[in-house]
């Protein structure tokens, strides 16, 4: 560990069952009941589940059919992303009362660097309590928080006392905290990596810490050095208040499967309209167009084309998407279509910003 004077004070704030909490706040009839945002008992995927539903095993990313099987009393609610964005903006306004070093990860979570803060309060734990209380009183929903010396530990800590709680991991507690942690709870270690670590005899942070960097790089490639460092509390990623957008996408899951390219083109026209609106709103354009197709058997396919110039107009996006659509025949009926634009002009803007930092 480095000298205590160099420690950052990082808070990771994570809203509790955000989409579901907003729905229960806006509709008192849903409070205390198991609800799933998104999906239905016939099809679709759950975007979020209330804590009442989670007790039955209902989680985000499972099918609505499975959610209904786990919890016959489940109530499906249609997502309202404009409303979630509105609430998210209110929460982020509270964050900015404390620091301008706010890095959003999504609508419902963010990192805050409060090493130097607008309140002049040296206690990150007290600041986290105050922020959570303000969100509850001013917005109406609860949040949890993790507080520590870096983003990695803070994010893991925010999950410890959920919902409506917080966990502080002080500098002298970091290594012991990580040593006792099950490897599956390490942020960035997914299911596949977890299984691979189990096969190598790595079940806890202590097990991970016992492995050399050479061993980890041999089995996990470039990620090996990352695992070697984070289990020792070393993670120097800064809180970045301006994140560069790398992709803009729009997609739609259909109530009735699409069975021909004609029907698909009708829906792709609507999706392209939505995508164009987002691009124009943020003055973004891109060169790589990707068509995403999910079939009725849940298999997924993507097809991409990179153009020699930036585009943002619906007509040009749709022209490219139509070409991608007819590259090969449908293999089954289609339940989801999506269009994304990558290779964006935001990356060029980033390069310009870096160039301006040089002194001549």
Brief summary:
The protein is of the alpha+beta class and 360 residues long. 39% of the residues lie in helices and 22% in strands.
* Count of individual beta strands: 12
Number of continuous helical runs: 14
Instruction: Tell me the span between the first and last alpha carbons.
Output: 36 Å
Secondary-structure-based class equals alpha+beta
Assign a percent range to the helix content: 25-40%
Give the tags:
single chain, 360 residues, alpha+beta, 5-stranded mixed β-sheet, 14 helices, globular, disordered N terminus, disordered C terminus
Describe this entry's structure for a reader.
This protein has 360 residues and is of the alpha+beta class. The protein is built from 14 helices and 12 strands. Strands 5-6-1-7-8 form a 5-stranded mixed β-sheet. Strands 9-12-10-11 form a 4-stranded antiparallel β-sheet. Strand 5 and strand 6 form a beta hairpin. 34% of the residues are buried. Mean pLDDT is 89; it is low at 1-5 and 348-360.
């Amino acid at each position: 560990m480095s000298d205590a004077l160099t420690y950052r004070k990082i808070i990771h704030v994570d809203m509790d069952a955000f989409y579901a909490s907003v729905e229960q706040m806006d509709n008192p009839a849903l409070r205390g009941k198991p609800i799933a945002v998104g999906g239905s008992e016939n099809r679709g995927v759950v975007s979020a589940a209330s804590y009442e539903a989670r007790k039955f095993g209902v989680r985000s990313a499972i099918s609505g059919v499975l959610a209904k099987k786990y919890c016959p009393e489940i109530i499906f609610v249609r997502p309202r992303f404009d409303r979630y964005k509105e609430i998210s903006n209110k929460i982020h306004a509270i964050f900015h009362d404390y620091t301008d070093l706010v890095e959003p990860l999504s609508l419902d979570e963010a990192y805050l660097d409060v090493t130097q803060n607008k309140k002049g309060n040296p206690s990150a734990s007290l600041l986290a309590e105050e922020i959570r209380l303000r969100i509850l009183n001013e917005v109406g929903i609860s949040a949890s928080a993790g507080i520590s010396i870096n983003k990695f530990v803070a994010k893991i800590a925010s999950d410890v006392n959920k919902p409506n709680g917080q966990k502080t991991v002080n500098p002298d507690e970091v290594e012991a905290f990580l040593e006792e942690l099950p490897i599956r709870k390490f942020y960035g270690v997914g299911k596949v990596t977890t299984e691979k670590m189990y096969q190598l005899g790595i079940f806890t942070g202590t097990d991970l810490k016992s492995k050399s960097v050479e061993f980890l790089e041999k089995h996990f490639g470039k990620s090996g050095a990352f695992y070697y460092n984070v289990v020792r509390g070393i993670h120097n990623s800064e809180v970045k208040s301006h994140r560069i957008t790398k992709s803009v996408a729009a997609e739609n899951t259909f109530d009735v499967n699409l069975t021909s390219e004609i029907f698909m083109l009708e829906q792709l026209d609507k999706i392209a309209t939505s995508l164009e609106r987002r691009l124009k709103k943020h003055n973004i354009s891109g060169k790589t167009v990707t068509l995403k197709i999910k079939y009725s058997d849940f298999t997924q396919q993507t097809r991409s084309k990179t153009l020699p110039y930036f585009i943002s107009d619906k007509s040009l996006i749709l022209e490219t998407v139509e070409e991608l659509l007819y590259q090969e025949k449908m293999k089954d009926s289609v339940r989801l279509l999506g269009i994304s634009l990558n290779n964006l002009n935001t990356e060029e803007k980033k390069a310009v910003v870096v160039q301006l930092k040089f002194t001549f």
